[in-house]
Structures are given as structure tokens and as C-alpha cells.
């Protein structure tokens, strides 16, 4: 697992590599107070995760966290701090995941790729995004 932080030690992103970070068991990578939680599960056959329901909770969400998971192919994610300074560029390949917590980001598709994005909602493009 790779944590990407800005110069003030604020968490900007977490990168999980499919080959390195899917260790046996249930592995949570975030603190309970993070707005977006991140975990991996690598469990043996016949494991049961008890049926459950998530109760409705009122939450204060200060920013939009985003998950990018590469299913197939290769992409490059550029990660910026909140002042739009480039912090790093990371190449993600099949099975890799990035959770983007703060700052900015951009994506360049390096080869034909299938990836999915998940983020908190509701989300309004004209209110929640500034391009630079």
C-alpha cells in the first residue's frame, strides 16, 4: 500500500497494487474517521460474511473522495495537492486501485483500459468540479 501525502502530511491518495496488497484475510487501510473507507478481502472458499444492513446515518462530507479500480489495461493517475501542484504520477495496471481523498487528479489512458470509478454522491458536475 502506498500513501501519497502533501507537504503538510495530509492524505491525498492511497494506491493498492493487486499483486502486493491483497494479503490473506480482511485488511482495512483507513482510520474509522475517514470519509471513504478502504479494505481488501482475500478469503478462502466457504468463508461467510454475516448478512447485515448498513443503518442510515447523517454524515458531514467535506469533499468528494473517489475510487478508481483498473479491471483491465493501464492508466496513469496524476495526483495534485490542493494548490494544484503535481505531487506524483502513478501507473495503475489490471487489479490496482486508487482512492483519491483530497487535492486534484488527472488520468491518462496508457493502453486500452477498462476501469471503474466510484465516488460519494449526490454529485453535481457544475458544482463539485473545477478543471485546471
Shape: globular
Number of strands: 8
Discrete helix count: 2
CATH class: Mainly Beta
Task: Spell the H/E element sequence.
Answer: EEHEEEEEEH
- Give the biggest beta sheet: 6 strands, antiparallel
Number of domains: 1
The residue fraction in helices comes out at under 10%
Q: Average pLDDT, to the nearest integer?
A: 92
Structural category: mainly beta
Give the CATH topology.
Answer: Jelly Rolls
Beta-strand portion reads over 45%
Estimated radius of gyration:
16 Å
Poorly predicted ranges (pLDDT <50, ≥5 residues)?
none
What would CATH call the architecture?
Answer: Sandwich
Q: Please report the distance between the alpha carbons of the first and last residues.
A: 28 Å
Quick recap:
This protein is mainly beta and 132 residues long. The protein has helices at residues 18-21, 125-128; strands spanning 2-5, 11-16, 25-28, 39-42, 66-80, 86-93, 97-100, 104-119. The protein is globular, with a radius of gyration of 16 Å.
Descriptive report:
There is one protein chain. With 132 residues, the chain is mainly beta. The chain is built from two helices and eight strands; from the N terminus they run ββαββββββα. The chain has helices at residues 18-21, 125-128, and strands at residues 2-5, 11-16, 25-28, 39-42, 66-80, 86-93, 97-100, 104-119. A hairpin with a 5-residue loop joins strand 1 and strand 2. The longest helix has 4 residues, at 18-21.
Amino acid at each position: 500500500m502506498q500513501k501519497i501525502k502533501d507537504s503538510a502530511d495530509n492524505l491525498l491518495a492511497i494506491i493498492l497494487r493487486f499483486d502486493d496488497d491483497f494479503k490473506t484475510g480482511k485488511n482495512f487501510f483507513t482510520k474509522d474517521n475517514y470519509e471513504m473507507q478502504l479494505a481488501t478481502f482475500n478469503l478462502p472458499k466457504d468463508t461467510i460474511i454475516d448478512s447485515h444492513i448498513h443503518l442510515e446515518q447523517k454524515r458531514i462530507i467535506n469533499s468528494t473522495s473517489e475510487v478508481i479500480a483498473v479491471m483491465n489495461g493501464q492508466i496513469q493517475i496524476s495526483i495534485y495537492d490542493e494548490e494544484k501542484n503535481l505531487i506524483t504520477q502513478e501507473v495503475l495496471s489490471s487489479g490496482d486501485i486508487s482512492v483519491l481523498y483530497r487535492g486534484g487528479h488527472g488520468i491518462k489512458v496508457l493502453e486500452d483500459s477498462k476501469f471503474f470509478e466510484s465516488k460519494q454522491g449526490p454529485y453535481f458536475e457544475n458544482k463539485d468540479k473545477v478543471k485546471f
